Amino acid sequence: MTPAVARNILTPVGKAGGSERIWEIDFLRGLAIILMVGYHLLFDLGEFAGLKRFLGFSTDLSSLAWTAAQFFFAGLFIVLSGISSTLSRNNVRRGLKLLAVSLAVTAVTYVFEPTSAIYFGILQCLTVSILIYGAAFQEAGPVACAAWGVAVLGVRAALPILTKGVPIRFDWLLPFGIHSPAFSSFDYFPLVPWLGIFLVGTALGKSIYASRRSLIPRPPRETFINAAGRTSLLIYIVHQPVILGVLYLLGLVR
């Protein structure tokens, strides 16, 4: 996948019919993807290389602080994807392109580690969310998008009550956050609640970015973070193979 293709799937232009981008969205997306890469680096060092700390950071990511951090930058990425969808001319086409990428990720992770393959990670979640938005919410107003987003979040809040005492011995509802206790995956982002977060992002895009223009004056110089934001999909796809390849060459992974 070329950088141009990756850029077109997740980062549509900021102005209809033009090439000017909304730079702060690129910046925040770049920040989110850089934090995500750092998080996965620490995970790989702890899980595969056996290191306890790296550059002063613990590789034990099970703490409440690390869990909150992961939800923050993943949530930021999904909100920004929702905003970007309101700037796209054809979300169904974008979703279908991302579907091909997400299926490839599932196949590769299944070959690498079948017991923890990525069946519904963040790419699969974004794929379905973009397709749902393109099919059902493209013409909806910001209030409707926000209301449906809150409704999905409400279902997530009620899910533990609804499933309490119900033995779940299957995984075919895992896209909706329902799975067996034995389910394991490297990356798992069910539609409930993350579709809700995505729809909140579309509500923001339809309201505060209705003009399709940056809200903050552009800084005088281009930044590495903005460049990362424009190629976030490509970075997401290649960063794990690159990290594991480097660790293998250094003799830290066998």
- Give the overall shape: globular
Strands of the largest sheet, in order across it? Answer: 1-2
The average pLDDT value, as a whole number, equals: 91
Uncertain segments: 15-19
Number of helices, counting only DSSP H or I runs of 4 residues or more: 9
Radius of gyration, rounded?
19 Å
Characterization of the model:
With 254 residues, the chain is an all-alpha fold. The protein has a domain at 98-207. The protein is built from 9 helices and 2 strands; from the N terminus they run H-H-E-E-H-H-H-H-H-H-H. The protein has helices at residues 3-10, 23-47, 64-85, 91-112, 122-137, 142-163, 191-207, 224-230, 232-249; strands at residues 53-54, 57-58. Strands 1-2 form a two-stranded antiparallel ribbon. Helix 2 crosses helix 8 (224-230). The chain is globular.
